[in-house]
Amino acid sequence: MFNRILIANRGEIALRIIRACRELGVESVCVYSEADKDAPYLKLCDRAICIGPAAAKESYLNIARIIAAAEIADVDAIHPGYGFLSERAEFAQACRDCGIEFIGPTPEAMARLGDKVACKNAAKEAGVPIFPGSPGAIEDEEEAVKVAHKIGFPVIIKASAGGGGRGMRVCHNEMTLRANIKAASTEALAAFGNGAVFIEKYLEHAQHVEIQVIGDKHGNAIHLWERNCSVQRRHQKLIEEAPSPGLTREKIRPVCEAAVRLIKLAKYHGAATCEFLMDGKQDFYMLEVNTRVQVEHPVTEMITGVDIVKTMIRVCAGEKLPYSQDEIKVHGHAIECRINAEDPARNFMPQPGTITTWQPPGGPGVRMDTHVVTGYTVPKYYDSMVAKLIVHDDSRELCINRTARALREYKVEPIKTTVPLHLRLMENTDFRKGGVDIHFLERLLK
Ligand code: ADP
Fold first, then answer.
1. Whether residue 163 has its Cβ less than 6 Å from ligand 1
2. Same structural domain for residues 211 and 68?
3. 200 lines ligand 1 (CB under 6 A)
4. pLDDT by residue (tens digit) across 224-276?
5. Which of 49, 128, 403, 433 has a C-alpha 20 to 30 A away from that of 11?
6. What is the residue with the minimal CA distance to atom 10 of ligand 1?
């Protein structure tokens, strides 16, 4: 096992990793920006090093400064969390060059699965169901039109290097496709430094279902079943749950097994998520692979009992996976509500500022993953998520009731949060029925 791990992240995930390190008997070192200097979780790690000003480019996204901190603190490994540098192969490579273990896949495995076009090709080889679409990056307009007519409109143009729901364009006919293809490529080049775009079939009514997988360095890999993350706004997830409502184990098992084949093919170690869209017939089409721990990993932890963060640290330290596939059992149901410092009544406007009342819920089956305490000031520079409320119970219905109960206990003042919206969702008939699609929330808010 490692002696000391540097956490190249902030907020709740930094605290989540500190806790995992503590339980494994490993020292943790946090890096922080000037905006986070008073963050309470910095007192829970073994050492904290300031790496620069508030702007992420000069701190949490600055590879040279993070590596310098890692050398000063003499760490064996770096955990990147999610967001920031977690999916940047050049960061994994910089760690390798300095003899520091990156807690995640190798740069090669990351490049293979992180690039959408490369990933689709690997998925095809592994027998993972994918969308009909262009076989690779689209070279010119005529090719795009030919492919679109073959698969049928509507189609979606995506950037191979895309992420965060940015730069996608839905085209319902040839004219809009012709008008958009060049612009999409130019935009992709500006946003991601790579102009490669491709097209695939656009699914109008879909649910988002993703598979959690984890592999070790000895060629073993298992899945931890699925999560449903269909409650989204602007492609950002707001609620995640597991198991997916209305899905039998028989139906989802082959998809899970395909996801395991894919990460084995890529010689992948660490945690990964294969994201799919599911249509009304419960057919699956892979969207992409996230080569890191996900925000919503706790729902899977709650139904399987597997500590995903500790397991990824253990496998990256060279241990064999501590579980076989047969040992992974699903118990009950779990729901995660992302609590964001945003005002849902004013188009989700960010709400930075000092929190004077912070009264989180508790009781049976309630887990709060948060770095916030009373008196905490939400900085304006970063993501607005301030907490994750994760609730577990025996069935989906009981879990929804318990989540509603927890949300009613939850008091945050004076900033606005997504708490009241979550409560409204727990009481919504369509959500309670299960099976809402990815446009459900946007329709509800109209
Ligand atoms: P990103 O990497 O930018 O997050 P994804 O490929 O994961 O992009 O897609 C993000 C979201 O965009 C999906 O969750 C879904 O809501 C929508 N989307 C992407 N591809 C399709 C598609 N082929 N059909 C319908 N919706 C899609």
1. yes
2. no
3. yes
4. 999 999 999 988 999 999 999 999 999 999 999 999 999 999 999 999 999 99
5. 403
6. 165
